[in-house]
Amino acid sequence: MEPIFFTEHITVRNNLNLKNSYEYRDFFEVRNGLITFKMCGFTVIDDHFITVLPKGVLDKRDVLSDEEKAKILLKVLMKYDKNAVKKDNLQYGTNRENESQNLFSSILEIIRDFKQHGIITKHFLKRETNGSGKIRWAKTFKLTTPYEVNGELIYLDLSTEKKLKNLSEEITMIHWLILKEIEYCFGWLVDFKVQSPALQFKKLNTIKAKAILKRAMGLTFNKHEFSRYKLLYDYVSKDYLKRSKNNSDKKLLYAFKFDMVWEEMCKKVFAHQEKLMEEVPKYRWMIREEREEYRYQIPDILIEDFDRNLFIVDAKYYSFNIDGTNSLPGGPDMGKQLLYLQSLESVKKFNKLYNIFVVPASIQNEVMTHYATGYLDNKVLKERFDCIYTLQLDCITAMQDYLKGKSILKDELLNVVKSI
């Protein structure tokens, strides 16, 4: 299945001839022969495997191919899904309910199992005289008579035993079909290619495969065998590819709000100091003069350097590459950041406070750049609230460092801000 690549909110020619529909209203919009995707991730629509890259992943001259960028995106979504607290924006198709695995975690587990244990096969023992297998000495001594040659006993008729695989067995065939399906649909994305034997392959019959695997799970008393059967059974039961023509829901793994993923990535790569959240003043409500309740201010990222300077960072999923200056943060965003700054100015432990927006971008030969400086257009208020810096962070670099678990971009951010 050949992949097709888009970038979120980049409008391009609708070469796939996709049409607006209620089912995909949150996925894309078609207008005047052009199409704009409104999500980020992976989906299958009309048998097209579509990858929608995040805002900021734009430049075709980049060293990385679209395929390599897609692999990075998949790993980011998988890590976010596994570790992040706020991840309700990730979707796995409709009616996810209590699924413990999405498609990609399932196929990666199947690949890992195959690489570790090989194809599932039923074995039988071929026993013969003077065969190519292992010599069964006990049976040879018991059943055959040796010859004496030069004073030594020599056995000419050796009982042998060889373990053979039955490649025509149904479960073996199902296993091969699943592996070939994974290779065909997603092999390029998960770096998987399988060398299968010269078998007559047929399209995977989900109903038949489920019945065979369910029967096998009920008959085996071996825990390892059961777990391998269960792995395949879960894959065909969920039927991620929706082979039925009447069911077009093939949505795989995507985020309608990649801004939450971007925020989580920035927290990690900038080494957000959670302990500093205790310094942020709270809102206090007095309810009818009887009791108090508190509400919290929650900045995205707080960083304190060795000089006791505080950096208040807001990770914004905007793109100046797409919308230009129309994407500059407006009143609500700036007002919130200025209130954070004013609140934290009362904390006397900090020498200087910096207010920063960080947005994704595609940057050549740099990791982070200063894009704009914002402030209130009033002399008194400007002096009171200082300014807000907007920085562009290379999106691919951020994703790669997030996957590596590194926070080296913290120093990059501090250096850029101090150099302005």
Write the layout of secondary structure elements.
Elements: E1 3-7, E2 12-13, E3 28-31, E4 34-37, E5 40-45, E6 48-53, H1 66-83, E7 90-91, H2 103-117, E8 122-129, E9 134-135, H3 137-143, E10 147-149, E11 152-154, E12 159-166, H4 170-190, H5 206-219, H6 223-238, E13 251-255, H7 258-269, E14 283-287, E15 291-295, E16 301-304, E17 309-315, H8 320-323, H9 331-345, E18 352-361, E19 368-374, H10 379-385, E20 388-394, H11 395-404, H12 409-419
Parallel strand pairs: 1-6, 17-18, 18-20
Antiparallel strand pairs: 2-4, 3-4, 5-6, 5-13, 7-13, 8-12, 9-12, 10-11, 14-15, 16-17, 19-20
Observed structural traits:
five-stranded mixed sheet, 12 helices
Main beta sheet: 5 strands, mixed
Overall geometry comes to: elongated
Percentage of residues in strands = 15-25%
Give the helix tally. Answer: 12
Number of domains: 4
- In total, the number of strands is 20
Radius of gyration from the alpha-carbon trace, in angstroms: 30 Å
Order of strands, main sheet, comes to 1-6-5-13-7
Any low-confidence stretches, pLDDT <50, length ≥5? 93-100, 244-249
Name the structural class.
Answer: alpha+beta
Instruction: Calculate the terminal CA-CA distance, rounded to whole Å.
Output: 48 Å
The helix fraction, in percent, is: 25-40%
Average predicted local confidence, pLDDT: 83
